[in-house]
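Thread: Newbie trying to understand structure tokens

Hi all, I'm a second-year student working on a class project, and my supervisor (Dr. K.) asked me to get a predicted structure for one chain before our next meeting. I've only ever worked with sequences, so writing a 3D structure as a token string is new to me. If someone could post the tokens and maybe explain what I'm looking at, I'd be very grateful. Here's the chain:
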Amino acid sequence: MAKSSVKSCLITGCSEGGVGAALAETFAAKGYHVFATARSPSKIPQPLHEASNVTVLALDVTSRESILRVAETVRDHTGGKLDVLLNNAGHGMNMPALDASIDEARKLFDANFFGVLEMIQAFRHMLVNARGVVVNNSSVGAYQPFPFITIYQGSKAALITAGEGWRLELAPLGVRVITLVTGGIATSFLKNLEPVKLPEDSYYTSIKDMIEEQPEHVPMGMKPEIFALDVLRHVEKGSTGKIWIGGGVAIMRPAAWLSPQCLLDMISMWPKPFAKKLADAHKTT
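---
Reply by user tm_fold:
Sure, no problem. This is what the structure looks like when written as tokens:
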């Protein structure tokens, strides 16, 4: 069992190439005992497997059985406390809303929203015992609409709204809730999106190549290591509520609140060239 003086941190989604791995390395370097989790532990970087203050665990945030199994392991290791629960796991979807599989959309919400809620519920006693902090990784996309990733953005918007409510609910119990409004980070997240598979009767066949290429035009910005250090800083200084962090947020934060929708649409790159090519294609049909 870990000494009570050693702070503990559980991080979901720690596969190599993502921010979860960088967060695990950063919190471990600070002296936390880190529970680094992923659906496939073999994808977690080897240095984390070898670190004496890191416990690597298999965790699927869409499986209640998996969550409860990990919760029991953490409880046994820490004596019933968890200082930091960092909900980072999730996935994206690049697909027109009209063509999206509802089953796949539900799976996305299960991972990006309901999985977060179930993690908080499963670890609630440990968090209250530690007077700990919940950190939920959302996205600047919740405020800035981009075509074809709207289901992903919707899940992140739900997480921000609920996260702010959870902050108020958990504060009287001594638990802080931080919601990261994350901008561009230089990870493999966008590269790992599933290929676009449009049905034969899709209205968007004429711009399929543009839909596929859209993630390539999203600015990556901040290095994961810098992101992780910033998250650690906010955890340790007692921050709560929404924290805007990552590439492009210095522009997007005021734009989201102060700009007219027409300007936000221009930022999203939708009017040109997507809309023109799509409209031209349908003029000929």
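A couple of things are worth pointing out once you decode it. The chain has eleven helices and seven strands. The longest strand covers residues 176-182. Feel free to ask follow-ups in this thread.
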